[in-house]
Amino acid sequence: MKNTVKIICFLLLSVLLFQSCKLGRFVFYNFANITDHKIFPYRTIETSSSVFIFPEARHPKQLENIDTDKVNEPFDAYLERTRTVAFLVIQDDSIQYEKYFNKYAEESVVASFSMAKSITSMLIGIAIEEGKIQSVDEPVTNYIPELKPNGFDAVTIKHLLQMTSGLDFNESYTNPFGHAATFYYGTNLRKAINKLKLNDTPGEKFDYNSGTAQLLGLVLERALKTQTVSSYLEEKIWKPLGMEYDATWSLDREKDGLEKTFCCLNARARDFAKLGRLYLHNGKWNDTQIIPERWVKASTKLDTTEHSAPFYQYQWWLTKNAEQFYAQGILGQYIFVDPDKNLIIVRLGEKTSKVNWVRFIAQVADSY
Length: 368
What we know:
The protein is an alpha+beta fold.
């Protein structure tokens, strides 16, 4: 009798899971992993035949020991112990340090997670420059009119960029019925977006959440009309920068899928570093202005005049006094830029391991 009950319960659970692809994905894969690029459908972003390669520094600085947690240990050992899979330091366009751990190598693909928010911001800046989007002051309902009944006429593109939209969004990835899990594991982002509501008056306070970045993704898709977000990234950034490898952008579904612009651009450490180099040079790549300089400046300056946070602008994070800026992902993915030192640091990891990586990376930058 007990076995019969167990079998019935198992069958009921199986039916429930298969009725909901989102719930099935959540139960099977929970929690987010840097290998998640393998479980979602995607679009490929191809590189060009002309590849840019960072040269090795002739006399690289040796990073030998690190003092942390009251323990002095070799730098490489510390990175490996804290579940880092790639750590890359580039100064004056030369590789000062590059190491990979846990069977990862320079050709290994790693999911960006929320670093994709910063990349989405790049594309928004280009789209505005090209007139595909009029300005940051446009209401999002110009592109997503189905949100008008939900009060989104008062939400501008700038509110989304600054995370001041007032969006009601549960950022927890551990709640299978929350917004973040729905956006990450779900198979219909457009439908999920249509259900979004506002919790606060737009433009009054900062509230970091992934929903705003995904709204930017849908705005961008609608503005591009016949072009996908992935193909736009390929045309405007990936090929012009001479990335070493193709990348992929995870989608919610195979057919007519929408890029998960709040996360999930899948690439290699050196190519992530080139995105940092692009912003290090104010949107210019060698002799070509890829992203408007004024967009890069607006994304990386301290400005709280419209209730934005002093540490966040246009989907980029800022250190104190905006001396450095960085893109950040949930498991400790970082593209860190220090303009004064002409330096870029990329850290990719399987976990944060409870390390304050911003402070750690800033300390590494200070040593140069």
